[in-house]
Amino acid sequence: MSFAVDRLVLTPADIDLARSPLAGHLSAETYVLGAFNPGLTRLANGNLLMMVRIAEALRHPLRDAHVHAIRWERRDNGVGRYVLDAWPLEHADTADPRKFLLRDGGWKIMALTSLSWLLPVELTPDGLAIVTIHYDRAIAPAHDFQCYGIEDARISRVGERYLMTTCSVSPERHSTTLYSSRDGLDWTFESIVLDHQNKDMLIFEGLIDGQYWAQTRPLGDLYFAYPPGSGWRAGPSINLAHSPDALFWKPWHKPGIRPHAATVATARIGGGTPPILTDDGWLTLWHGVEPKEIVGIYRTNWSLLDKDDPSIVLRTEHAPVLEASAELTEPIQDLMYVRDIVFTTGIVDTGEHYVVASGEADLACRITHIPKTRFNGS
């Protein structure tokens, strides 16, 4: 399905690495591998705010028979710096351009070809033009558990506060971290809120019976089979949790959104946009992944959840609402390193339609205006 307003609003060419948190730290040249997966919210002045993941990568990671990775570390004086680590190529699998696997570890161990930090980008109220890029408010690693970067912000407005979940990456843990803000621009680090590997924590934009609620997506290497003939497929699913304060979370005992056995397009799923309350229930956009080659095909799907019990799915569709667009990325073909990926991460209600923000091809930020009637199907 095509939409009248659907375009890329931010690409790597828009990012000034001279103002990067990494600037001046490394002797090696870096470049913007991707400016993508933006959290989205509306500011008090009416403008939209994207919190963009900037994946800053080494221009030449392979040299001297080693593959190199960027890492943040805290020095003895408490000041942080960025350094390079070198791994022998003979022990590394570099087939995936986004990461490399280290062999002979006894289990799956990987490192990243880039380090990610978060950049606030202010847009016009329709989301179609850049107003200001707030380099002075960038969010960069500041703790040991973020030494390999901060990824994939999701922003929810709950009452008078903005709450932003992020994924913090390190050898210590692959955790979900929470930031809060009163204005959507100046953010305060709150805490680690999920200590296990969880890539997609989305806080509902509103309370249910006085409690904060969130979608989570814990990952692992082992999933138990559903019985033969089941309508569900075993694998990563979107779970639920609730909290009295958005800091301490208790998993909900009922399942959330699960992969359907009827379609391979959602063989693996994960949360996309923070659920927003509509007249009919909580609208949530999420991603489904169809296995293909190394990365897979990422599409955006949607579900409508019961307003009092979000474990109840009222409506959903197998057909995606958004797919990757070769037409949109054609002008930046020379930068493409993966394809078939749209990763939706933000939504704002304008009254007449939704402004939806996505990462396109792990490379750029895409804004789509989706009519509300699109979600009236069954």
UniProtKB/TrEMBL annotation:
One Pfam family named in its UniProt record: Glyco_hydro_130
Family membership: Belongs to the glycosyl hydrolase 130 family.
Keyword Repressor: no
Entry keywords, A to Z: Glycosidase, Glycosyltransferase, Hydrolase, Transferase
SUPFAM superfamilies assigned: Arabinanase/levansucrase/invertase
PANTHER family from the UniProt entry: GLYCOSIDASE
Taxonomic classification: Bacteria, Pseudomonadati, Pseudomonadota, Alphaproteobacteria, Sphingomonadales
Protein's name according to its UniProt entry: Glycosidase
Annotated GO MF terms: glycosyltransferase activity; hydrolase activity, acting on glycosyl bonds
Domain of life: Bacteria
